[in-house]
Amino acid sequence: METINAEIFTLTYGSMVRQLIADYEDVEEVNKQLDKMGYSIGQRLIDEFLAKSKTQRCADFRDAAEKIAKVGFRMFLNVTAAVTGWNAEGTECSLILEDNPLADFVELPEQLAGLKYSNLLCGVIRGALEMVNMEVECTFVRDVLQGDDANEMRLKLLSSSTETYPFKDE
Amino acid sequence: METINAEIFTLTYGSMVRQLIADYEDVEEVNKQLDKMGYSIGQRLIDEFLAKSKTQRCADFRDAAEKIAKVGFRMFLNVTAAVTGWNAEGTECSLILEDNPLADFVELPEQLAGLKYSNLLCGVIRGALEMVNMEVECTFVRDVLQGDDANEMRLKLLSSSTETYPFKDE
User: Fold this and answer.
1) ipTM of this predicted structure
2) I want to staple B116 with a disulfide (CB 3.0 to 4.6 A). Which of A18, A81, B31, B41 is the partner?
3) Is A92 part of a structural domain of the chain?
4) What does the pLDDT look like over A12-34, one tens digit per residue?
């Protein structure tokens, strides 16, 4: 698999976020744009993921969350996430990201409290899961850049069409 | 050295370019913005380059161009470039990039003839060299995305202050 240096990615991502802040002048709008960009990226990345990970079909949402955390993050960002905080129904969980390559060397000024700097990742997960027929909500609920003690993304399954499962190309 | 998957970088870069096109609606302005963003990135990357490459001080511009092509591109983008087309004075040369990870799976529509899609790279080189006291011009003169037969960046040394050489931290 082709790789590149993480720092040029981190800095390029930083440029993009700065550009969006300059464009929209509204933190909520920037969060939305990042999510939207991530969504398109996720729709593309899922193909590489399925091809390269040679992963078995996901049994359910619980299984999908584990694969994102352990295989997906490793494949694309070279880090892993922990999956915690399941609700009783198995439809909600949190991904805890200890290391976030997007945010290396980043500090946010006070006026950017509310910026979901790494919101692209939520979009990526949403876009990728939609391609395998799981509709999810994904939101950063804790972010080290905002002074929190961890990076936590909350994942919530809205619907999944098991009748169109397995993946399209199988 | 930390690495990440090249595809997520390529797609993120693509999102950024699309955003700039939507913002500026003018290809020349997009080229300028990409160069400007690259410039800041280059100013940051030079530190990692000097630290990690453990490269000897560059004797002159010729040497610097070779290091960019063979060590820099390898370190950050995991590709190398060929250095060709030197002028007699040794102040101008071309970098030929066979593989351009920024432009993988990219096709430009006709109305974007004139877009220097990978212009970020020119900015990076300009920014990095300025930090070691070489002022250069760097421009894409051929681009496979524009139908050319190669990716060629033309480098031109404008001034270099040998008196402030070697690198600051030596």
Assistant:
1) 0.91
2) B31
3) yes
4) 999 999 999 999 989 999 999 99
* Residue of chain A nearest B124, judged by CA positions: A8
B12 contacts on A by Cβ (under 8 Å): 9, 12-13, 16, 37, 41, 120
Segment (H or E) for A128: helix A120-131
Model pLDDT for residues A90-145, shown as the tens digit of each residue: 999 999 999 999 999 899 999 999 999 999 999 999 999 999 999 999 999 999 99
The enclosing domain of A154 has a CATH number of: 3.30.1380.20
**Contact status, residue B21 vs residue A19, Cβ threshold 8 Å:** no
C-beta atoms of B5 and A7 within 8 A? no
Answer yes or no: is A68 within a domain: yes
Classify residue A1: in a domain, yes or no: no
Nearest residue to A124 via CA among A53, A49, A51, A57: A49
Domain membership of residue B170 (yes or no) is: no
Cα–Cα distance, B8 to B27 (Å, whole number): 24
Give chain A's domain count.
1
